[in-house]
Structures are given as C-alpha cells and as structure tokens.
Amino acid sequence: MRRGLYLMGVSVMAGFWGQFFIRKLVAVLKRASIIVFILSGVIFASALTMGVRKVDMLEGVYVVRSEKNQCSWAP
User: Dihedral (C-alpha) 14, 19, 24, 25: value to the nearest 10 degrees?
Assistant: First the structure.
C-alpha cells in the first residue's frame, strides 16, 4: 500500500514537472510542434521497451531440447 502511494505521488509530481518544462521549452523555442516530437519519442521508447520485455518473457518460456532436436513450450 505504501509503495503504491509513493509511486502515485512520484508520477503526479513527474507529470507536473514535465508540463512545466515542456511549457518553458515551447516558450523558448516559440514552436508548439516540439510537443509532437516529444510524444512520438515517448511512444517509440515505450514500444521498444515493451518489445524487449516480451522477448525476455518468451526466452524464459521457450525450451529447446537439443538431444532430440525438438522444441516444446514449458508450463
């Protein structure tokens, strides 16, 4: 319970700080299009890390039996 509240607090603070810094960045560069590039970068990084995590999960489940040269799924 305490860890959940801590993580929720950290995420709320990160959201506020992120909005603050992006607002400052848009004001300095005078270009609102930077938001699109930041958003696409975040989506790309998220997709990349989910793909890496999925490969790690599959490597743990997939078992190759070399003596019989058969592949099977482990429970």
Answer: 90
pLDDT per position as a tens digit, 2-58 = 899 999 999 999 999 999 999 999 999 999 899 999 999 999 998 888 776 666 566
Alpha-carbon gap, residue 69 to 65, rounded angstroms? 6
Amino acid symbol at 35: I
How far from 71 is each of 4, 55, 59, 60, CA to CA, in Å?
Answer: 40, 17, 12, 13
Query: CB under 8 Å to 7, separation ≥6 — which residues?
Result: none
pTM to 2 decimal places = 0.55
